[in-house]
Specification:
With 482 residues, the protein is of the alpha/beta class. It has 2 domains: 2-250 and 464-478, Rossmann fold, CATH 3.40.50.2000; 274-458, Rossmann fold (3-Layer(aba) Sandwich), CATH 3.40.50. It contains 17 helices and 20 strands. A 9-stranded mixed beta sheet has the order 3-4-5-2-1-8-9-13-14, sandwiched between helices. A 6-stranded parallel beta sheet has the order 17-16-15-18-19-20, with helices on both faces. Bound molecules: adenosine-5'-diphosphate and alpha-D-glucopyranose (GLC). Adenosine-5'-diphosphate (ADP) is lined by residues 17-18, 21, 301-303, 331-333, 359-361, 364, 383-386.
Length: 482
């Protein structure tokens, strides 16, 4: 099959969260299965790989609803997969991907609508017709509707669309102008198409027009059909239920693998765990935590957003630090109020907690490697990658029972000594406090169990091959070949 991934993030070029981590290994796994896989994303100002790109000759004509625009198509290869960048400075020559300084760009719907239209016009320009355009979250959510037009490029007549929900919370709102901007007809302004509450809801449009819908874990696929998790689109999902499938993300073991990780001062594995101690010492030194390898370190690496439930952690952290002999290393950024709260706690508990505000790829690897536990109290979590990274780095996850966290972590059973982490059901201050206490007691009082859990966690198989097979099945079904 010819498969084109249309995405707003793709590591190492552009990454804000998990979406960037997911695209390259999934594409690589599909390529390994023999498919012709390509990736396309905008050429953001922050992407400085241009020197290694070749320019595809001739400007590419983009047929917007209001007339034509000209963009440059750049091409490179990542893991032997062609990666295309759409260069159009008016929208993309900026430092951020979605925004800067905590604020989204005011013209985001225009930027990504333009990108979607450009993805369609790429087929004729390259004389390459994908069988499947695999779209991801609202930034590429107009593509399924554009593919439903009979004015689309002829070469795409048989092309089908898949829409993957990585996060139901972000819908992408636009005014009615989006229709004329992209060349969609006025009748798309309808509650059964893209209109919702007097605006265009791009996610809703994608859910209506995509041939198949996937999301990134089995549990989340069920959750989003309920009012609690559906963000107002649960009815659309119930309506499309037979076309909705949950496929769990995997781990990119070329990048997230403690045995070969180039960001670590010493590598390690389940069979040879010695290097983890060095990573812990390094982490303590680098973050100014007191240098004692017997104290358990709890790590956090996260976007600071409501979704991640870190406000609950802030509520209880002072008590945890007062009552338990533990250390915390926190890395993240986002909600300024949360940033201040964490920094305030650090100023009161110096040596016991370190808070780094910002995005730091290297430190994120070191925290996974140097910690003993990893905390994810997410309110909802479509899949979550960090709990999987932490397991294979031997740092036991402490997670709220939701979405992909349930699907990937096995709760500790004290009777049998089995499990790979600690799960709590209610997202309350006391439940999180008690679960951190449970983890801490396991570390100090049942070291045999702790080591057993760590071994089981590190040996979990999160490779992409299995999930890629499930995607292949969906693609074939979409093309009527199952
Ligand atoms: P989400 O996509 O909702 O943010 P995931 O767990 O799927 O959550 O993926 C988050 C990814 O982003 C992980 O690779 C994580 O290490 C990375 N990440 C998040 N915040 C930071 C940060 N401040 N610095 C470095 N990496 C980060
Ligand atoms: C989203 C979700 C996260 C998921 C990631 C990749 O950002 O919040 O749970 O792991 O996408 O699919």
């Amino acid at each position: 099959m010819k498969i084109l991934f249309a995405t707003s993030e793709c590591s190492p070029y552009a990454k804000v969260g998990g979406l960037g981590d997911v695209i390259p290994p999934l594409a690589a796994a599909l390529k390994k299965m023999g498919h012709d896989v390509r990736i396309v994303l905008p050429k953001y100002g922050s992407i400085n790989y241009v020197s290694r790109c070749e320019v595809v000759e001739g400007p590419m004509i983009i047929n917007m609803g209001y007339g034509t625009e000209f963009a440059q198509l750049l091409r490179t290869k990542h893991r032997n997969i062609p990666v295309y960048f759409i260069e159009f400075d008016r929208y993309f020559a900026r430092h951020g991907i979605y925004g800067e300084f905590g604020h989204g760009y005011h013209d985001n719907w225009e930027r990504f609508a333009f990108f979607c239209r450009a993805v369609l016009d790429m087929g004729p320009f390259l004389n390459w017709a994908p069988d499947i355009i695999h779209t991801n979250d609202w930034p590429t959510g107009i593509i399924p509707a554009l593919l439903s037009l009979h004015t689309k490029p002829n070469i795409l007549n048989d092309t089908k669309s898949i829409f993957t929900i990585h996060n139901m919370a972000h819908h992408g709102y636009a005014s009615q102008d989006l229709l004329r901007f992209t060349g969609l007809y006025d009748h798309y302004w309808h509650p059964f198409a893209m209109e919702a509450c007097g605006a265009i809801n791009v996610m809703k449009g994608a859910l209506q027009f995509a041939n198949k819908i996937t999301t990134v874990s089995k549990t989340y696929a069920e959750e989003i059909k309920t009012a609690e998790y559906g963000h107002g689109l649960d009815n659309v999902l119930k309506y499309r239920a037979k076309d909705l499938v949950g496929i769990c993300n995997g781990v990119d073991t070329d990048v997230w693998n403690p045995a070969i990780d180039k960001f670590l001062p010493e590598n390690f594995s389940a069979q040879s765990i010695g290097g983890k101690k060095t990573c812990k010492q390094h982490l303590q030194r680098e973050l100014g935590l007191s240098n004692d390898s017997n104290i358990p370190i709890f790590g956090v690496v996260s976007r600071f957003f409501h979704q991640k439930g870190l406000d609950i952690l802030c509520n209880i952290l002072p008590d945890v630090l007062r009552n338990m002999n533990v250390q915390f290393s926190v890395l993240g950024s986002g909600d300024q109020h949360l940033e201040w709260k964490f920094q305030d706690i650090m100023s009161r508990f110096g040596g016991q907690v370190s808070v780094r505000i910002g995005f730091d790829e290297q430190l994120s690897h070191l925290i996974e490697a140097g910690s003993d536990f990893f905390v994810m109290p997410s309110r909802y979590e479509p899949c979550g990658l960090n709990q999987m990274y932490s397991m294979i780095y031997g740092s036991l996850p402490i997670v709220h029972a939701t979405g992909g966290l349930i699907d990937t972590v096995d709760n500790y059973d004290e009777l049998t000594g089995t499990g790979t982490g600690f799960i709590f059901n209610d997202l309350t201050d006391s439940a999180l406090y008690n679960t951190i206490g449970w983890a801490c007691a396991t570390y100090y009082d049942r070291p045999g169990d702790f080591e057993k859990l760590r071994q089981s966690a590190m040996k979990k198989d999160f490779s992409w091959a299995k999930s890629a097979k499930e995607y292949e099945k969906i693609y074939l079904a979409t093309m009527g070949k199952s």
